[in-house]
User: What shape does this take?
Amino acid sequence: MSRIILRVFAIASTSLLVSCTAGKTVTGSKTSEKPNIIFIMTDDHAKKAMSAYSHDLIETPNLDRIAREGIQFNNAFVTNSLCGPARAVFLTGKYSHINGFRANFDTFDGSQPTLPKYLKTEGYYTAIVGKWHLVSTPQGFDEYSVMIDQGEYYSPRFYNGKDTVSVKGYATDIITDKAINILEQQKGSGKPIFLMVHQKAPHRDWMPNVTDLENTNEKYYQLPETFFDDYKNRTKAATMADMRIEDMFLGYDLKLYLKNAKEETNTGGDKNSTKNSYNWLLNEYESMTAVQKEIWDKYYKPISDAYYANKPIGDELVKWKYNRFMNDYLKTVKSVDDNVGRLLDYLDKKGLAENTLIIYTSDQGFFLGEHGWFDKRFMYEPSLTMPLVMRYPSKIKKNIKTDELVQNLDLAPTILKAAGMEVPDEMQGNSLDVFFRGKSPDNWKDKIYYHFYESNAWHQVQKHFGIRTKKYKLIYFYDLKDWELYDLEKDPNEINNLYHKPGYKKIVSQLKTELKSLITKYKDSTAVDFE
Ligand code: SGN
Ligand code: CA
Assistant: This one.
């Protein structure tokens, strides 16, 4: 049994850096008919922080290039807005209640059928580099090099099945280097490759690459409309959540140089914890090289000094925190974009682009100040949606955009189809290849089902399930026994809960019937009964 806990390796192993790519000889290229499949997944990348979707925050020319030369999904949703669960859905093509990984505290049962295992039977070489976060050791891969738990931005550690090694440098660059190395090693093997490239960025604590801190200053970002949300008319869930920008750690999250740990008065979204967040940041800082530290200090020290010289208070402090956070978050996205550019260039240079399906997405969305929040978990739009673009020049028409409702559940079937395989009946999604020629099929799904399971954990989001159609969203916070209904066309910001409003009885009853039919369809025996 290889359900060994990865964290154990993190503690147990002290081995130093060794190369972990398989040592195959590169021979001349023998083009295989099956496409190479490169699946890039980042961690917590909000759709609006990608310029194919919105120019408000950042330009991401390389990510946009995938969309422009392929297809962009404007309404792509997760089934459970959390890291491990989203990854398990991708690997299995099944909802959390079927694949068994419902929340980050679960352990993935790697003995079940997964995408890489299926692809191996078709002759694929399978590999994953980067964030894993499924606790048990990866199965079904010819080669892997995965981060420990959440992973680190600087000098990150990787586990390859034998050793845990720390690699000097910046995570996003290193993971991309590892990916390119594998492609390079395998390109003459005659085997098609399935490569999962899982970045840590832009996950908390949003440490930028020092190369993006040179010759630059803080930018100013407009507050989202709902930044000062009072959660009126909502269930208690919104008020109970512990993920407000104003509660962010001053040190760990916002990179202030605290004079001592006691100055950290914020909870950071974990009221139960007594940990010293500032030391977390210091640990990461200590793993930087002297040169990296110098550039880091040159950028952050003056920001910290300015803060202490004239400490903002009240709303000004909250706004300062938002802006500070956004500057770092977006820099980590920039590094993702640069590195995707590097990967695309590599494919071009080696003549591999044409027969490669490349997919870019995030494990889930993220709140960037909407409702005053950061983080995810809620079925509200910013965390329910994920960016999703694909390019496969020989099969996908250029510059397609679709507004149809698609899910991360559909990705495993899409990849199997692209590899020329049948989609197993037990998979619960549908292949997205039906959109590749620029048309939508008549019978595509018109509603999606969502179920979030964690409770009493980081950020205190209540358990809930619900249904989203093109127009409405109905959410049941079942421990609270309370509902929310939104008209997404009239109220895209989801601040006007219509559930208890007169005039919506009929629509509520229709949506409840449809919700019940989705629960039956997807066999969710973990969903509580409701009237
Ligand atoms: C960490 C973060 C949380 C985050 C979870 C889950 N805190 O615990 O803010 O919600 O990960 O994120 S941190 O201070 O340790 O960074 S997930 O994307 O992995 O599901
Ligand atoms: Ca995540």
Remarks:
- The longest strand covers residues 400-407.
- Residues 43-44, 83, 203, 363-364 surround calcium ion (ligand 2) (CB under 6 Å).
